[in-house]
Specification:
Elements: H1 2-26, E1 33-34, E2 40-41, E3 45-47, E4 51-52, E5 60-65, E6 72-79, E7 87-91, E8 94-96, E9 98-104, E10 109-116, E11 126-134, E12 139-149, E13 151-153, E14 159-165, E15 170-173, E16 176-186, E17 190-193, E18 198-201, E19 206-210, E20 217-221, E21 235-240, E22 245-254, E23 256-263, E24 266-275, E25 280-297, E26 302-315, E27 318-321, E28 333-338, E29 349-355, E30 358-361, E31 368-371, E32 381-383, E33 386-387, E34 403-404, E35 413-415, E36 422-425, H2 437-442
Parallel strand pairs: 1-6, 3-12, 4-12, 13-15, 14-16, 15-17, 16-18, 16-19, 17-20, 18-21, 19-22, 20-22, 21-23, 22-24, 23-25, 24-25, 25-26, 25-27, 26-28, 26-29, 27-30, 28-31, 29-32, 30-33, 32-34
Antiparallel strand pairs: 2-5, 5-10, 6-9, 6-11, 7-8, 7-10, 11-12, 35-36
């Protein structure tokens, strides 16, 4: 009896394999007529995101629809550039550059997957091609577009001494790149970080970022699709190590774990946008920082965190924090100010001056939190700011020592979302024309280069 069932089982399996082989062999010769109707397409142009030389894009999808009431074949689908094209397509599960007699069921769709796999960057960074669809009556061309940047790919965990980076070549960092002497970055330069990557300005080294209005130096993820600018923790951080000296003007630092860690270092920073960073926008450890026209938003712990004391001055800056990822558990302060570190070591906070700034968040009652050891110097001054301060039992910014002329109303930002970060204020904002003139005279131009005049607005934007 067992032999009988075994033989039946072998027969059924053999029959199934034979049927499958027969079906697959039939797929090479469909008995369908070539399509004469116009095909329908999900888009006329497939725009792939920017890639750099010798890198590959994400995969994009083009759908092709058969409007007929009968199964058909598309006589020919091919790339204009053929096999030499940087674009790669997959049609009906097969990769290639030319396809003939491609079946498409009645009232059904065919998926074509598209990616670009760049080689050496062309002189003209705009790179295009076409997918051609031939029917018996016509030829339809679907445009393929990508932008291929010339880039220098730094080896994993590399060390450099002195370099000058400029807009003609993007920089791609893997692991940790350490600068031991002097790094200058010119306007318009893009610096890309792979997952977990960092840039470290080593002890006694120097960083100079010479961005300009509308030509900011951009630090962001190496994943080129713009959606990743809205996702924190795509890379690790920029660290300014002890005794290093840095000057940053017009930079965008987006999507890191910590945007800047200023660790016992000196920093002058102006006209900088630091947003969508997982833990901190700026983490300052016993540092010396002077900044103005800073625009900060969306960090799980704090937009600006100052620990273990130091000396700080910030003017006409916007420290927002609307971090709201579903997995977030941090307090999302605008400012954490302390003369302690995590191990309860102490150092003097010799100065912490904030003038014509905005501190506003959602997750906690107060945007500002102090964590201090009263036995150690803790000097601060908040003069003419807008501050979210709902819990006056913890801190009352309208009456406490060191707080002058502060406002506790909603600043009415334009759009605080991750994909926008439009942190100028609306015309009805209490920040409008409420700034202290002496601060505005020191910094007469806002982030956009607009004159503040005699009636300055609190924050980074006039």
């Amino acid at each position: 009896m067992n032999d009988y069932f075994m033989n039946v089982k072998i027969f059924i399996v053999g029959l199934g394999i034979a049927s499958l082989i027969g079906f697959q062999s039939c797929r090479e010769d469909f008995d369908y007529d070539p399509i004469s109707s116009d095909l329908n397409y999900s888009k006329d142009t497939v725009s792939l995101d920017t890639v750099y030389n010798f890198s590959k894009s994400e995969t994009y999808v083009l759908k092709v629809y058969n409007p007929d009431n009968d199964d058909r074949v598309i006589p020919k689908i091919y790339l204009t550039r053929g096999e030499s094209s940087f674009f790669k397509i997959n049609v009906d599960g097969k990769a290639g550059s030319t396809f003939e007699n491609v079946p498409i069921r009645k009232k059904d769709s065919l998926f074509i997957f598209v990616e670009v796999s760049a080689k050496d960057a062309p002189i003209n960074p705009l790179y295009d091609d076409e997918i051609n669809f031939e029917t018996t009556n016509s030829t339809k061309k679907i445009k393929l577009i990508s932008w291929i940047e010339k880039a220098k790919i730094h080896a994993k965990d590399a060390t450099i001494s002195s370099e000058n980076w400029n807009v003609n070549e993007a920089q791609v960092i893997d692991g940790n790149l350490t600068v031991t002497n002097d790094l200058t970055i010119e306007k318009g330069t893009k610096v890309y970080f792979k997952k977990g990557a960092s840039l470290t300005i080593a002890n006694n080294a120097k960083l100079t970022v010479n961005g300009a209005l509308n030509e900011e130096v951009k630090f962001r993820s190496a994943r080129h699709d713009n959606k990743y600018d809205s996702i924190p923790d795509q890379w690790n951080k920029i660290e300014l190590a002890p005794n290093s000296t840095s000057k940053i003007n017009y930079a965008k630092i987006i999507g890191a774990n910590t945007g800047l860690h200023v660790n016992n270092a000196k920093l002058e920073i102006s006209n900088a946008k630091i947003v969508n960073n997982q833990s901190y926008g700026i983490l300052a450890t016993n540092a010396q920082i002077k900044g103005y026209n800073l625009v900060m938003n969306n960090s799980n712990l704090a937009s600006l965190a100052i620990e273990l004391g130091g000396s700080y001055e910030f003017y006409h800056s916007t420290f927002a924090n609307y971090f709201n990822f579903s997995t977030s558990v941090g307090p999302a302060y605008s400012l954490y100010l302390s003369n302690l570190d995590n191990d309860k070591n102490t150092a003097a906070l010799t100065k912490a001056t904030f003038g014509n700034c905005i501190f506003y968040n959602e997750r906690t009652p107060n945007a500002i939190v102090f964590d201090k050891n009263d036995a150690v110097q803790f000097n601060y001054l908040f003069d003419t700011n807008i501050i979210h301060n709902a819990d006056t039992s913890k801190l009352n910014v309208t009456s406490a020592t060191g707080f002058l002329n502060n406002i506790t109303l909603d600043p009415l930002f334009e759009n605080t979302n991750y994909d926008a970060n439009k942190l100028w204020v609306k015309e009805t904002s209490p920040a409008k024309k409420a700034g202290k003139l002496t601060f505005a005279q020191q910094y007469p131009l806002d982030y956009n280069g607009v004159q503040r005049g005699t009636m300055p607005t609190i924050g980074a934007f006039q």
